[in-house]
Design goal:
This protein is α+β, with helices and mostly antiparallel strands. The chain is 32% helix and 18% strand. The protein contains 10 helices and 14 strands. The strands form 3 sheets. The protein has an 8-stranded mixed sheet with strand order 1-2-10-7-12-5-4-3. A 4-stranded antiparallel sheet has the order 6-11-8-9, with no helix packed on it. Strands 13-14 form a two-stranded antiparallel ribbon. The protein binds N-oxalylglycine (OGA) and nickel (II) ion (NI). Residues 222, 224, 238, 243, 250, 258-259, 298, 300, 310, 312 line the site of N-oxalylglycine.
């Protein structure tokens, strides 16, 4: 008896998820319909909600804000490298200001994402797909919607700008955000290379080291749109996770904070800082740095106000070369400091992510020696 009711519940949930996904109107479509209650598929399990209530408020903490001005001048660079090293080892997160991407380019990117999401549903629908092979994809919630316990309160436009062998055709981009995306991506790619140079030096290696390992390849943008939520305390914007690639640069609009990072068991808000970008270490950089740098868990909460818009740029490595192997950098391994991670083949690494729901994925735990 009990079993069949569980099966029925699971069946009903799957039907609800499918019905929602087939609207192709996104979470924004639900918000626009004026609903006052959160649909059941978005309600987090009660044990998670209770665990969150126990979290103390930790407003007094803030991830470091690093000023990149003068990054090419010797003495100043040393100081910046030191700040980057300390942040990458402890928080795995920092914000950067004076990063060289013009304000107009960042604002243009955010406006483009807003325009894409707020245009006529029929225009957006053309891009709605869960086919991971498509370079430009618009979809609701996460890639694991049908496997997850909770659907997430967000819509995402995913753009694979550099997946190696096949050159990205800009005409695939939606017209409303085409020019702004091309412009932003050029700048953010450049900033990614600057940051990888600083991170290489912070590991005591040559500036070009991480770049030469192709860490700056596999450049992808995930443009998130978090509509206002009628019952934010029951929902989640992005599930707790760590980023799988090497490095992430996140641009966010300044309206509401939503991004939180886990620090000693407490969720800390990353407050938007005027003109700043958030930078975080991904799992692969934790692996190649042999655990010296930290890929930290983070999430985005839902808010009653909004929309909150964020654009994550991932540098995921050479996704076109599935036989590429990564392991702890030899120069960092000594007798006193043996390798703590195994070698991983890109194909296996990616398969493991795609076959597990984000809620259950244990990141580098799979690759510990
Ligand atoms: C991500 C992410 C956070 C945000 O896309 O991996 O963590 O604030 N996004 O949208
Ligand atoms: Ni993330």
């Amino acid at each position: 008896m009990a079993d069949s009711s569980v099966i029925n519940q699971q069946y009903d949930r799957l039907q609800m998820l499918k019905a929602f996904d087939e609207t192709k109107a996104g979470v924004k479509g639900l918000h626009d319909s004026g609903l006052l209650k959160l649909p059941q598929i978005f309600v987090r399990p009660s044990e998670e909600l209770i665990a969150d209530l126990k979290h103390e408020n930790a407003h007094q903490f803030q991830v470091p804000v690093i000023d990149l001005s003068g990054v090419d001048d010797g003495g100043r660079r040393k100081q910046i490298v030191e700040e980057v090293r300390s942040a990458a080892e402890t928080w795995g997160f920092f914000q950067v200001v004076n990063h060289g991407i013009p304000r107009s380019v960042c604002d243009g990117m955010i406006d483009g994402v807003r325009d894409f999401n707020e245009q006529d549903v029929d225009q957006k629908k053309k891009y709605y797909t869960r086919d991971m092979k498509r370079s430009v994809r618009y979809h609701s919630c996460s890639f694991d919607l049908f496997r997850s316990r909770t659907a997430t309160w967000k819509d995402t436009l995913t753009i694979a700008l550099n997946s190696g062998s096949n050159l990205f055709d800009h005409h695939e981009l939606p017209p409303v955000c085409r020019d702004s995306t091309v412009e932003y991506s050029k700048h953010v790619e450049n900033l990614g290379n600057i940051l990888l140079g600083l991170l290489s030096e912070a590991l005591g290696l040559e500036t070009e080291f991480l770049g030469n390992m192709e860490c700056s390849e596999g450049h992808r943008l995930h443009c998130h749109y978090y509509p206002p939520c009628p019952e934010p305390e029951l929902a989640i914007g992005s599930t707790k996770h760590s980023d799988a690639g090497f490095l992430t640069i996140l641009l966010q609009n300044q309206v509401v904070s939503g991004l939180q990072v886990l620090c000693q068991g407490r969720w800390i808000d990353i407050q938007p800082v005027q003109g700043a970008l958030v930078v975080n270490i991904g799992d692969l950089l934790q692996l190649v740095s042999n655990g010296k740098f930290r890929s930290n868990a983070h999430r985005a909460i839902a808010n009653r106000s909004g929309p909150r818009i964020s654009v994550a740029c991932f540098f995921s490595g050479p996704l076109y070369n599935m036989t590429k192997i990564y392991g702890p950098i030899e120069e960092l391994i000594t007798k006193e400091n043996p390798a703590v991670y195994k070698m991983v083949v890109m194909r296996d690494y990616l398969m493991n992510i795609l076959n597990t729901s984000l809620e259950d994925y244990r990141a580098l735990d799979y690759y510990k020696v």
